Amino acid sequence: MTSTLGGYTLGRTLGSGFSAKVKLGTTADGSQFAVKIFRLDNPDFNARAFQLLRDEVQSVQTLDHKHVVKYFEFNENAQMTKKSGAVVTVAYIVSELVHGGELFDYVANSGPFNERIVRYYAKQLIQSIHYIHTKGFAHRDLKCENILLDKFYDVKVVDFGFACPVEGRTGDGMNRSIVGSLGFMAPEIHAKQPY
C-alpha cells in the first residue's frame, strides 16, 4: 500500500524542516510535484505557525517568475492515508518539483565558486529578489538552503514562510518581527531595530 493525499500518490521524502515534510507527489497522469505536508496534530504547529503558512501561500500564489518556485494548490484540512492505512489530518502545499537540490549542497561539496559562476547566480538572485519586492513582499529568510537549482542549474527561490509585506504589517514602511535564520539576518534585526 502507498501513502496518498488528495489526488497524489506520495513517494520518497525530498526534505523536512521545523514543522513540515516534503514528499514527491505523483498524479494519475504521471505528473510530479513537491508536496509539503504539515501534520495538524503536531503541537509545534500552533495558530501562529498556521497563520505564517497562510501568509506564505498568499504571498507565493501572487508570484510568477522563472526564478521563484510556483505553488499550485493549498489545502488547510485534508486526510492523508499512510502506508499502514492510518489516516491523519494534514495541511499541504503543492509546488513545482525542482530537481537540482539546494545551492548550499553545491557550495558545501565543491567549495567557493569561481567568479563567472558567482555572477551567473547573483544575477538570477537579484532578478528574483527585485521581482518579489516589486510585488510588495520581502522574503526575510534568503540563504543557500532556500535557493534550489532546477534541471538547467538555474535558481529557484523557495520557502516563503517568513515573507511579509515590504511596507510592514502596520503600513508604516517598517518591519519589527525577529525572524529568519540567525547567521543570515541583517544587523538591524539582530539589534532588534525596525527595518
Overview of the molecule:
This protein is an alpha+beta fold and 195 residues long. The chain has two domains: 3-96, Phosphorylase Kinase, domain 1; 103-190, Transferase(Phosphotransferase), domain 1. It contains four helices and ten strands. The strands form three sheets. Strands 1-2-3-4-6-5 form a six-stranded antiparallel β-barrel. It starts with a strand and ends in a 5-residue tail after the last helix. The relative contact order is 0.13.
Question: What is the structure about, briefly put?
Answer:
The protein is α+β, with helices and mostly antiparallel strands and 195 residues long.
CATH class of the largest domain: Alpha Beta
CATH architecture of the largest domain: 2-Layer Sandwich
How many domains would you count in the coordinates?
Answer: 2
Helix/sheet category: alpha+beta
Largest sheet: 6 strands, antiparallel, barrel
**Rg from Cα:** 18 Å
> Oligomeric status of the shown chains?
single chain
Whole-Å distance between the termini?
50 Å
Q: Specify the number of helices.
A: 4
CATH topology of the largest domain, anyone? Phosphorylase Kinase, domain 1
Uncertain residue ranges: none
Spatial shape? globular
Helix content: 10-25%
List the strand order in the largest sheet: 1-2-3-4-6-5
- What is the averaged pLDDT score? 91
**Strand proportion:** 25-35%
Task: State the CATH superfamily name of the largest domain.
Answer: Phosphorylase Kinase, domain 1
